[in-house]
Every structure is written in C-alpha cells, then in structure tokens.
Amino acid sequence: MENKNISLDVILGKEVKVFDFVNLYGCNIGDYTKIGTFVEIQKGVRIGKKCKISSHTFICEGVTIEDNSFIGHNVVFTNDLYPQATNKDGNLQSESDWNLVETYVKKGASIGSGSTILPGITIGENSLVGAGSVVTKDVPANSVVAGNPAKIIKYLNTNQ
C-alpha cells in the first residue's frame, strides 16, 4: 500500500528512498537519502546527501541537515521560541505572527531516537545526541551529549 504525500514543490535528489505515509512539502532532499515511514518534512527544510531520517520524525521549517547525518526514530525539531495558538486579540496566529528560528545539523551528526531539538541550535559535525535527549543549547563538533537538558558526556576520538 502506497500513501505518500509529496507536493510538487519538493526537490528530490538521485535515488532518494521515501517510505509510505510521509508528508513532504517545499523541501529539498539530497541524493541517496532515506526517509522513513510517518515522517513530515516542512517547507524550506534542506536535507543533504546520504542521510537517514527514521520513522515518526518531524522536521519543521527552518531546519537544515547536512550530508551523512542520521536522525533516529521519533525525533522532533522545533522552530519557535515562544509558541502560541492565538494573538493578544484572540485570533489564531498566522505565519506572519511568529519568528522562525533556524536549526542546523552539521555533516555526519547523529541524533538518537526520541530526542527533541529546541530552535536556534547547531548540532556540530560528527557529534552524537543520545536517545531521549532534550537539546537546549549548541552541541560541539565531535562530542556526545545526552540527558534533559543534554550535557556533554565526552568527546569522540577523531583520529580513527
């Protein structure tokens, strides 16, 4: 059974694999990337080459994921520091009523399943975010972070 919602404004690179029950619109997905089932990727998102986006993940507007990155199952990105449903006058907010805050996942980074990434974060090159972490500040390159809030556990040996 195939049920993919891929809008016409999506740019898919070579040999991108998209599993069933996805929602992709206005995004750019690099060559050889795999998108798991039950994933939503919103407009303006850029995902590099040879990435793996695991099932049940939400990647909102304002996120850039560079080449060779891994996003585990059920990872949630956020893009608004002060989310609200309505304005002071009680009307539902529209796109023009909030400030988009961008997030960057650098080349070769890995984010463990069940993690939440707050807006305005940079996850450094070749870093690892432990499963279930809540990332509230930048993650240095070549580091391992975990917890709520995520804290540096160690640095990876980059000479291998």
What would your notes on this structure say?
- The chain is mostly beta strands.
- The chain has a single domain, classed as 3 Solenoid (UDP N-Acetylglucosamine Acyltransferase, domain 1).
- It contains no helices and 21 strands.
- The protein has strands at 4-6, 11-12, 17-18, 22-24, 28-29, 34-35, 40-41, 46-47, 52-53, 58-59, 63-65, 70-71, 76-77, 103-105, 110-111, 116-117, 122-123, 128-129, 134-135, 143-147, 150-155.
- The strands form four sheets. The chain has an eight-stranded mixed sheet, with no helix packed on it.
- A hairpin with a 2-residue loop joins strand 20 and strand 21 (150-155).
| Major sheet description | 8 strands, mixed
- Tell me the number of helical segments per DSSP (H or I, 4 or more residues long): 0
The number of distinct structural domains comes to 1
Mean pLDDT: 94
What percentage of the residues does DSSP assign to strands (E)? 25-35%
The CATH superfamily name is Hexapeptide repeat proteins
Strand and helix order? EEEEEEEEEEEEEEEEEEEEE
CATH architecture: 3 Solenoid
Spatial shape? globular
Assembly of the depicted chains: single chain
Count of extended strands: 21
Helicity range: under 10%
CATH class descriptor name: Mainly Beta
Question: Strand sequence of the main sheet, in spatial order?
Answer: 3-6-9-12-15-18-20-21
CA radius of gyration: 16 Å
Poorly predicted runs: none
